Amino acid sequence: MKKLYGHPESLKTVSTKYCAGCGHGVIHRLITEVIDEMGLQEKSIITNPVGCSIWADLYFDFDSVQPPHGRTPAAATGIKRVLPDHLVICYQGDGDLAAIGTAEIIHAANRGEKFTVIFVNNAIYGMTGGQMAPTTLVGQKATTAPLGRDPIDAGMGYPIQVCELLATLGGTRYLARGAVNTPANVRKTKQYIKKAFQAQMNGIGFTLVEILSQCPTNWGMEPVDAVDWLEKNMIPYYHLGEIKNELEGAAAGAAAASVADRGAAPASTGGTAGAGEGLGGAAAKGAAR
After folding, report:
1. In whole angstroms, what is the distance from residue 146 CA to residue 68 CA?
2. Which helix (H) or strand (E) holds 160?
3. d(CA 64, CA 49)
């Protein structure tokens, strides 16, 4: 009988430290399923910082690097530039990415760094005890906002929509937002992850998949209630889908640049004609870019 479903080779067979109902475990599985399908286990590197994501290196069966809090994109930049043929993943929570790491993520995205960010948005600080995060919804309670987030009178500001913010930057090529609260959303989120990973391996610029995830412990509710709360409260504000998709245009540009590079090659072999061909190739290369 043909085996249709099994444990991903890239995911270790150990129990996790995550709370009951937490979405991290599902997200880990999606990442490893895609890596296995693409045959990239031996060429994958994940950078996981401080927060609940700090446990990730216990579960992924491939190389990992643990940068300081918020500095994940900086570490991923260095790794990807040194190992451009590897799949480099930033695995970040909303506190790490959208608070202490805001400058890092914005500049990495604007530079068009060719790695993929998996951004887990559970609208709260998880590991540190349920403080208000940059993504906490208006009116949502947290240990540092016991009456609920108040953007005006309490000066707490508004929840940051990370995908929409990064979509304004020229270096971003693919930004999508999924969720892991229903089977249908889980399947769709896997498609987003695979598309982002494929884009990275094709040398196309910055990609990010934001994933809305449950945090029953710090939301103060049962896991089933957390699934419903995410559906009714987070998704209306953080709309699901592909927020920015410039993959086709970027792929065409990369192909044109490759053709131009091949056309410019004879310039190095000598002769006046060769030099002329090289200038033409350079002009074509500039136009393609």
Report:
1. 29
2. none
3. 10
Which phi and psi (to 5°) does residue 44 adopt?
-110, 140
Give the N- to C-terminal CA distance of the chain in Å, as an integer.
51
39 in the Ramachandran plot: left (φ > 0), alpha (ψ -120 to 50) or beta? left
Q: Which helix (H) or strand (E) segment is 82 a member of?
A: helix 72-82
Question: Which amino acid is it at 134?
Answer: P
Which phi-psi region, left, alpha or beta, contains residue 117 (left: φ > 0; alpha: ψ -120 to 50)? beta
> What gap in Å lies between CA 289 and CA 285, rounded to an integer?
6
Please give the average per-residue pLDDT across 168-194, as a whole number. Answer: 98
Residue 21 has pLDDT above 80, yes or no: yes
**H or E element that contains 278:** helix 272-288
Pair of tokens at residue 71? 């500095």
pLDDT tens-digit series, residues 194-239: 999 999 999 999 999 999 999 999 999 999 999 999 999 999 999 9
Distances, alpha carbon 227 to alpha carbons 20, 36, 159, 234, 242, in Å: 12, 28, 20, 10, 22
Phi, then psi, of 256 in degrees rounded to 5: -65, -40
Q: Rounded to the nearest 5°, which phi and psi values hold at 64?
A: -145, 155
CB–CB of 211/189 below 8 Å? Answer: yes
Q: Hey, what amino acid is at 49?
A: P
CA separation for the pair 232, 81 (Å, rounded): 41
What are the residue ranges spanned by the domains of the chain?
Answer: 24-245, 251-288
Amino acid letter for position 206:
F
Q: Domain 24-245 is in which class? A: alpha beta
- Residue 200 CA to its chain's centroid (Å): 11
Q: How many residues does the chain have?
A: 289
pTM, full prediction:
0.86
Rg (CA), the chain: 21
